[in-house]
Amino acid sequence: MQLLREKIQKYFRSRELNWELADRGINQLRCQYRIGLRPAGAPEWIEVAIHFQVAERLRKGAAEGAEGNDAEIRKVLDPIVSQALSGG
Questions:
Q1: Which stretches within the chain are classed as H helix?
Q2: Which of 25, 61, 81, 87 lies in disulfide reach of 66, CB 3.0 to 4.6 Å?
Q3: Which of 45, 21, 51, 46 has the alpha carbon at shortest distance from 33?
Q4: Is residue 11's pLDDT more than 60?
Q5: How sure is the predictor about 88, in pLDDT bands with cuts at 50, 70 and 90?
Q6: In Å, how far from its chain's centre is CA 13?
């Protein structure tokens, strides 16, 4: 979970986004990490679920020194950030 958090924070920094991140726990039944995201100061949190397999690929990539795994995070977060920034 820590690596996942770091990758998300790196994503925000690379796009110069001032967003907050909160762990929302684990959904064992659906094999997902639950995370809350919101632009700093926004009243509402956006709930995001990231499958264990995505986190595992990030972990394996980090162990191998691969930076290409950032595409996994972009694939999940780009649509969410886009929608939030467009007011949707």
A1: 2-14, 52-63, 70-85
A2: 61
A3: 51
A4: yes
A5: low
A6: 12
